[in-house]
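Good morning N.,

You mentioned wanting to compare the apo and holo forms, so I went ahead and generated the holo version with LTTK3YTO. This is what I fed in:
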Amino acid sequence: MAGITAEAAKAIQRRMFAVSSHLIPESHHTHCLGMSICTSGFEDTYHRVHDTVPTHIPPWKAAIDDSGKDFVDTIYEKTIGEGIAKITINRPERRNAFRPETMKELMRAFNDARDDNSIGVIILTGKGTKAFCSGGDQALRSKDGYVDYDNFGRLNVLDLQVQIRRLPKPVIAMVAGYAVGGGHVLHMVCDLTVAADNAVFGQTGPKVGSFDAGYGASIMSRLVGPKRSREMWYMTRFYNAKEAKKMGLVPLEKLEEETVKWCREIMRNSPMAIRLCKAAINAADDGHAGQQIGGDATLLFYGTEEGNEGKDAYLKRRKPDFSRFPRLP
Ligand SMILES: CC(C)(COP(=O)(O)OP(=O)(O)OC[C@H]1O[C@@H](n2cnc3c(N)ncnc32)[C@H](O)[C@@H]1OP(=O)(O)O)[C@@H](O)C(=O)NCCC(=O)NCCSC(=O)c1cc(O)c2ccccc2c1O
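and this is what came out, ligand included:
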């Protein structure tokens, strides 16, 4: 486009994308109309009227946001005409461990999906089948958080957690492989989780000298109960998808089909009703967003010998030795 800046061209491209996303392609109409048989097994008017949703995986189209910056650690995509955005952590060589830049990009993508009124539901996932997310990149951990390009320590995953909780559209965690550490907390702050049969869940913090005393502890307690939460945090065991209760379990090869089906079921319902249900369901827990003190405690802990012992042990592939640290009364 001659005569306009690259940023202006990207802004125009984004606007055109948003507008075209409202248009449903002809092929989708045909497909949906073709699905007239109710396979749910219920022979009632409710099911005859509402029918089932199609399960094919839609074509994903690369999306951009207003900043005009590229997405490097993440992949940001949208469907055409179906109102679904997909945000993928793209560091599979590190089991999708995140660094501050990853969080910045995720926040940009979530912000754009929130702003785009053609989008009604957002999928958060990890690249590949080995991991949804393995938490903070331990190789980048320093005494004041995780450090990448600008040499500042950050714990900015806490901001992403709050953003997901407050975002007025459902966010679905699509989990294949490991969802551990900060990655496990990310799945917990999402509205729903669809897990493949190879999914593994767990908190590793107390083994690697970390913990999440904000949402990571409080939401877990609500989700799986206080005793199971203590077990997960104190013992740092891993659980397979069968053991992790209250989650849908689907074969790995059906994971995306099933997740998209959930999105479509949400998309055909009232956005205002969903928005208010989400706010209402979160209301009892909103006070936890104020638990910044939990994040600050982690920040201080990273600067201690005890915290560092866990990270060192992980990086050196040895067992941590916490025996020299006092168990204070
Ligand atoms: C996830 C695993 C169990 C997978 O094991 P597997 O055997 O399949 O793979 P490898 O271990 O060989 O890993 C392949 C490759 O990836 C690198 N890697 C994996 N995870 C990480 C990671 N988190 N950080 C850095 N690097 C990672 C690994 O080193 C290998 O690299 P090679 O070069 O050798 O090929 C297993 O990988 C595992 O246990 N990972 C660590 C999980 C973990 O402890 N995560 C951190 C928890 S702490 C955290 O996430 C956290 C972050 C925050 O920002 C917080 C903020 C505020 C409060 C608390 C926070 C917090 O707790």
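The first helix runs from residue 6 to 20.

Happy to go through it together on a call whenever suits you.

Best,
F.
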